[in-house]
């Protein structure tokens, strides 16, 4: 169903590139990864450094020298402290976070940090001046490369991290024979034991973290054309002299297992040896082909043309040049940034490993910011905003596996900390089932986090129509999260409220802050819908009764703003980065310009007061908010500010420092500018900015399992193609749209401001704008 963009310039291939090696891991490194593992490429001439990561290498947890109790004291319960806070709030209306933390917060031990796995160092001999240097990442292939000329030879390096073969592949070549002299070594951080061994061209390093005994292993294989692989006498490095080309393979694993309460599985040696020897037996072309087939199948589903052409500017220069009046270069950066988010998600979240953490899978420190963990008062959720919208459902299994694994410890937390059944967690979690509270007054209390995570399960069903997923995966965990709130809500007069309630990460502890009420309401509504779909009428009725009393958390205050708290306390000058009271606008769906125009207007007032600044992720959220408010120019303005202020030279999003949620949030926001489907209808080009008058997007996904291609010019729809993944009535925003089935027959009907038609599974439909 090719839509032709007639007359538009050839689409610039999305590529990041640099004309020098990276000086800084954070600012200039090129990230590659296969979900479980990652590498950041520096691209040095004499010494190449690859910062390696494996997602399960964490200190802390069971066996930690610090001690560890999942954040929940094994003895006694904390419910008395909760009751005291609730009583104070009933009497005084509010208390400071410090006073609340004094009672309910806890100094924790053994939480751990995501670890730097190792550095792969490749020393390369050579003499003479270097010219023609280029280091790049081709997003269409998921392959990075470095090339330069030195001493009359062109040297080329190729890098990719294969998901199917589970290995990092680095290939060094030259345009002359016998030109490569190289030695490779693994540099292992100090905070662990390390034993090296070598068999032929295979170097193995194995050891355990001193903190918690977690066993790790890395295997590095080297093979060369035209030379023999040797090693130093300590077996710490592998070498070749005068090789024509060299291929390095690396893979890593630990004995981590995602299973409460021990989180340990088998020694990684056997499985890892099989992985590396299987890859070692394959020629480079076979490894590359398998990688391309796997990667391109995902990445290639969505294309975006907003009129970009590839300017001859390295990525840092493209970024510096942004917003200076060169429209096609600006579009190139925006389109690149959109696709880079998709690339990062594919590279940091694939089935069989943990979800993308605050840095995806990339980390060069043993004490990274925020432990490079999973914050769940927005950050982990934001990481997955683009997954379904941009047709990458295959990146979501790690999220569901991970959240599923939190239920068991989360039951203990629910019981001990709130005296409730069901399960929950609070601000943050690690890979060892941490579901308790920390001591930090500014953020420690967030029992709504589990409910927020449940949105992803239900949305998965809405996007894919997968009934088995709804029945087997989504409903049981949603039900238990809802059960928690049925117990934890407090009756105040006729109303059900959350108490204590704390709007992230400012203000006082109060009762029934907007975000708490909105999230619990959403959980109950979604769970009720799921219950009705699956025939659990009893639980649906229970939720219905609760919903009738639950305060929705949607109040309009004195200056026209959407209230953040139950009382009208909003400070008109606050620019706080968390805008949690607009949850119902995004990522929720109860506030829409069409169905709740007054609330949408109040959300606008709030957003205008908060301004367009903030951390990377906060700006990314605002792109989504403005897109949902159908203001494309404002969404685009925030995108511009995010690119100008919160984006590093390698296009990683910056909090500061680097934090990946901003990348994912912005990619989702751009998709929301082009297509929305949360409002029970499919909205084509809901928030198109005037900077993108003409363009084409293909392969986006809408709820109801619809794949959507849209072509537009002069700021308006030219044509769209819809592929219905399931049968059902489809509703398009706007009357007068003309819908044709694959036989060319018109099948549209028009009512209540929508164009409606009956879609058949597997059928394609052509949508044309209303006749002028
Ligand atoms: C939340 C945010 C911070 C930071 C942290 C990882 O606590 O408020 O800005 O993003 O998560």
Structure description:
α12 runs antiparallel to α13, α13 packs across α14 and α18 packs antiparallel against α19. A nine-stranded antiparallel β-sheet has the order 1-6-7-8-9-16-13-12-11, covered by helices on one side. It is α+β, with helices and mostly antiparallel strands and 772 residues long. The protein is built from 19 helices and 31 strands. The longest helix has 22 residues. β25 and β26 form a beta hairpin. It binds alpha-L-fucopyranose. Alpha-L-fucopyranose (FUC) binds next to loops.
What attributes characterize this protein structure?
772 residues, 7-stranded antiparallel sheet, 31% helix, 23% strand, globular
Which structural class do the helices and strands define?
alpha+beta
Q: Rounded to an integer, what's the Rg over CA atoms?
A: 27 Å
Beta-strand content: 15-25%
For the termini, the CA-CA separation is: 25 Å
* Mean pLDDT across every amino acid position: 96
Number of helices: 19
* Number of beta-strand segments: 31
Q: Bound small molecules, which ones?
A: alpha-L-fucopyranose
Helix content: 25-40%
Largest sheet: 9 strands, antiparallel
State the shape.
Answer: globular
Low-confidence stretches: 4-10
Q: Report strand order across the widest sheet.
A: 1-6-7-8-9-16-13-12-11
Show the helix and strand layout.
Elements: E1 15-18, H1 25-28, E2 30-33, E3 37-41, E4 47-54, H2 79-92, H3 97-104, E5 118-124, E6 130-138, E7 143-150, E8 153-161, E9 168-174, E10 180-187, E11 195-199, E12 202-208, E13 215-225, E14 230-231, E15 237-243, E16 245-254, H4 269-280, H5 284-299, E17 303-305, H6 315-320, H7 327-348, E18 374-375, H8 379-383, H9 385-389, H10 397-405, H11 407-418, E19 428-429, H12 449-464, H13 467-488, E20 490-492, E21 495-497, H14 514-534, H15 537-549, H16 597-610, H17 616-628, H18 632-645, H19 661-674, E22 675-676, E23 683-684, E24 695-702, E25 706-713, E26 716-724, E27 728-733, E28 738-740, E29 749-751, E30 754-759, E31 764-768
Antiparallel strand pairs: 1-6, 2-3, 3-4, 4-5, 5-10, 6-7, 7-8, 8-9, 9-16, 10-15, 11-12, 12-13, 13-16, 14-15, 17-24, 18-19, 20-21, 22-23, 24-25, 25-26, 26-31, 27-30, 28-31, 29-30
The structure holds alpha-L-fucopyranose.
